[in-house]
């Protein structure tokens, strides 16, 4: 079992602590949180060992799980990597692209593995459909959230939209050609609502909308490709797959047949895969353990996290130019 320690015992940090404690792939050694009052409370309530410094925790483990505010990701990761520890970093990988690229370089130099917590890659609805997403030419995403002061210290692009950026980059294997975006700050000092149009060199267009001041929560992505439409509901963890094929010569009474202007007939049918429910956070942590133990590539690499951050900042740059 890999010895693991958690940096940060806030809302998400406590979830990581609980899941690592129940995992049979890790031995949870303890945690460090700079807020001594919170650290004492977490230690007393759950019985996790509290470390007095980041360095002390790093020296006691094989893997460092960094669930601190984004501003501190780089410093925490650098110290852990330079000590030869593998790192799991919550998204976004770092506060700036330069920091992210330095983390990638450090990990290569010290021959350690890293993974970024883009948890939607482990969403069961996405897992059930990702192999069906083949060369999509139009993608539309909506990630809407009710207002929560937590996370408003960064633009909505880094808080919410970056989830969809990572998912899109994982299925569209083409360089980004052009980005247009706009945003509005309604209640925060940083944008609360944003829309981005990403054009890829292969002709695909992705239209992303994110809001953190909506009346209801929504996390849906729709992928349109030749002869297929795939809808993924990341919130309710369900999916819908609609496909088209050449119509049979003698269709049945209940077959859905469409005919285009050229007279070509297509049959519409549903091919909805089974969605196997899971705990996405536990899965992302445990697949990282597998990558370390087996010497394989993590599902969401440090490079993946860096590319998502680059696109996020290109979107933010569009706001600032307007």
Describe what this molecule looks like in 3D.
This is Oxidoreductase. One of its GO terms (molecular function) is nucleotide binding. Pfam families: GFO_IDH_MocA, GFO_IDH_MocA_C3. Residues 2-118 form the Gfo/Idh/MocA-like oxidoreductase N-terminal domain. It comes from Flavobacterium cyanobacteriorum. It is a single chain. The protein is of the alpha/beta class. It has two domains: 2-112, NAD(P)-binding Rossmann-like Domain (Rossmann fold, 3-Layer(aba) Sandwich); 121-277 and 311-320, Dihydrodipicolinate Reductase, domain 2. The chain has nine helices and 14 strands. It has helices spanning 11-22, 36-46, 54-59, 73-82, 97-110, 124-129, 156-171, 280-294, 302-320, and strands at 2-7, 26-32, 63-66, 86-90, 114-117, 138-144, 176-184, 193-200, 205-211, 218-225, 228-233, 238-246, 256-259, 265-270. The strands form two sheets. It has a nine-stranded mixed β-sheet. Helix 5 (97-110) runs antiparallel to helix 9 (302-320). The longest helix has 19 residues, at 302-320.
Q: What structural class should be given to the helix and strand makeup?
A: alpha/beta
How much of the sequence lies in strands comes to 25-35%
Average pLDDT, rounded to a whole number, is 94
Helix percentage range: 25-40%
CATH topology of the largest domain: Dihydrodipicolinate Reductase, domain 2
- The topology string of helices and strands comes to EHEHHEHEHEHEHEEEEEEEEHH
